[in-house]
Amino acid sequence: MIRDITLGQYYPGSSIIHKLDPRTKIISTFIFIITLFLVKDFLGYLIATIALGTTIIISRVPLKFILKGLKPIFLIIIFTFTINMFMTKGTPLISLGFLTISKEGLYTAVFMGVRLVLLIIGSSLLTLTTKPINLTDGIEKLLRPLRKIGVPAHELAMMMTIALRFIPTLLEETDKIMKAQMARGADFESGNIIKRAKALIPLLVPLFISAFRIAQDLAMAMEARCYKGGDDRTRMNEMKLQGKDVAAFLLMIVFVAIILLQRIYF
Amino acid sequence: MYLIEVKNLTHIYSEGMPYQTSALTDVSFNVKPGEFVGIIGHTGSGKSTLIQHLNGLLKPKSGKIIIDNVDITSKDIKMRDIRRKIGLVFQYPEYQLFEETVHKDIAFGPLNLGLSQEEADMRVKEAISLVGLDYEEIALRSPFELSGGQKRRVAIAGVIAMKPQVLILDEPTAGLDPKAHSDILKMVEKIHKTEGNVIILVSHNMGDIAALADKVLVMDGGRLALCGSPEDVFSKEDLLKSLGLALPPAAEFISKLKGKGINISSKPLTVEEVENELYNILNNN
Amino acid sequence: MDNIIKIENLIFEYKREEDNEIVKAVNDISIDIERGSFVAIIGKNGSGKSTLAKNLNALLLPSGGAVYVNGNNTSDETKTWDIRQSAGMVFQNPDNQLVSSIVEDDVAFGPENLGIEPTEIRQRVDMSLNAVNMYEQRKKAPHLLSGGQKQRIAIAGVVAMKPQCIILDEPTAMLDPHGRNEVMEIIHKLNSEGITILLITHFMDEAAQADRVIIMENGKSILDGTPLEVFRHVEEIKKIGLDVPMAVELAYRLRKRGVIIPDDIISEEDLIEYVFNRSKEFNSYI
Predict the structure, then answer these.
(1) Which of B177, B274, B281 sits opposite C279 (nearest CB)?
(2) Residue C17: inside a domain, yes or no?
(3) pLDDT over threshold 60, residue C286
(4) Rounded distance between C-alpha atoms, residue C13 and residue C16, angstroms
(5) CA geometry: angle at B27 spanning B23 and B31, to 5°?
(6) Is pLDDT at B257 greater than 60 in this prediction?
């Protein structure tokens, strides 16, 4: 069933990580990702893994839940791993016909693989502990200074807010239309690609019409509620950086420093 | 002989369906050929799950649905054979229109059944006249430029054109003004008479159910709470109210009169019947 | 008399798509709405009632005549936001008018647009959610709520803007009977707190609950008065394809059969009372 698709992958909780300002989490995630590219050996990864692991434990998001999120990108990881393994030249370890696995290749493959996994887990921790709507607010606030150079920060955030609100509605609509057409004998499941693509017309046309109707209704409702763009608009939940956010930033600095020191001295 | 036999139908929504709580528990009932069945129950009582089973859109966990001696729950049944027997008109059916012309849209179902173009064309003509529209005037127009009421008729015609033995309508009058509401109901009655098919009408409007149905099913929490003639069902005022359901306005009115100590022996369900009752009371000097 | 809305010879024209003909959706209507009153507007689909409603808070602007809200002309662009703040609007489709995926954020949307201080927005949001009995659900996502609940959130979103008047355009048309009752209850409550209510509906029992009923047909107001005055015109109302409340219908039919029924029967309670008293008379005869 189409409604089974879970959206975003927010894992509800009340840990200190959940309660951090979304801006803190967005910036920290960026720093973490950049730092990963500064790591030169596995000792560095060990430090990063410990840091990430500690954060996960504090966030109380079950590891199983996080790993489940890795599933869809598993193929990409395997792909990168394989490419690196076969394409890096060096001392041959094993030869499979024209394919050769070199010692350096294996090393690079594992090295890149670990980086990718840490990167994905790190960024998914952001979405797992931050409600999509708060993420949107955070992005809006962070992008606001860029308005001077023409980045439509408020508009982007409003678009994301509306998308979050209406994706479930549209999925429900899709489900309804699909069932209605199936009741009229539509077949969405059998036949070759062309036949299947054609079978989608009775679904897509009504869906587009619905989407336009929703857009029209919503625009009218927003105008009626005095919406006039982002200027002079206040927010009920003004984001304020708190003590815990400062602490988080300090920890991030310590983390980056350790990684840098390790890179230089060990 | 029954046309529809539903036996111990049970359905459990697969886990991971966090927003849907209603399922079906041990639902059994029969429908005779030509009967007009009304289904009532508050939102989330399992009405829509039930009708989706009758149409084969959902498969039961256990239990059987036998329609015209064919078990539609069996594994090797073809969907096409179910659609031939049962037509389902969803709520706000006008939102499923998609073709360039009214004619093409109505022909969609018949063509999916594997009928020839000629046959389908015939069916379209018939269906358009059954829903009370003018073929010449409307067939080649885009369904999207019609009025709300017309769109709904066209959408219903799209199902009628499949000539189902059982026609299920889920809230066919939702959102319509009083005139369009009564027009659609008259249309449903006309279809019932001309086609001689079974009609299953899901509605929140108790007055409509009382006036039209031969048999009423009352759903509550996924169970069939009551089943019987409108007279039987609507005489159980306390039970219905405990299920969050109202009486037909006419019956409600009579119930209040009785509450005042006025002696009324008959059980009026329609405004006409109440009128006659009041006439007798006020004229008995 | 203090009128919150003054409609003077309002005409609204638009170009019909099919034949490019100019159509008058609202054709010369003059109505004053008294502050604090509860007015129901009924009419068939296409009678112009929705167009009229959208003219009352500058979502549409008159082609002729004028509309004043709180003394402000809706055609005066500098007053648009004042007008929309004082005459809030609730629409038919409960799904398509909520903006945020969290109930309380949605209610805050209007006040945020008005540029109100965050602490005050918080107070208004809590107050509005309590007013529609939805405070408990403030953290939920709208798509998990019932139609009636969604519609109450939409009402809360308007209430949070502290309007003097709320225009509801068929707010119950897509709801089940339970949701309809919930919404009507809230409407009465808000009206009793002094908010002017303009309810557009095609349910006659809802219209009968108003202080004043206006019936529209072909862009004109054809009947206007208390429910008692309006529903007296049973034949006229039926001719244009509308219903009357059941008690009115019964009284009308019985009168046609020669039974004497007083003129002032509108509600079922009235009719029951009358029948009860008459039957007592008979019994005392016997």
Answers:
(1) B281
(2) yes
(3) no
(4) 9
(5) 130
(6) yes
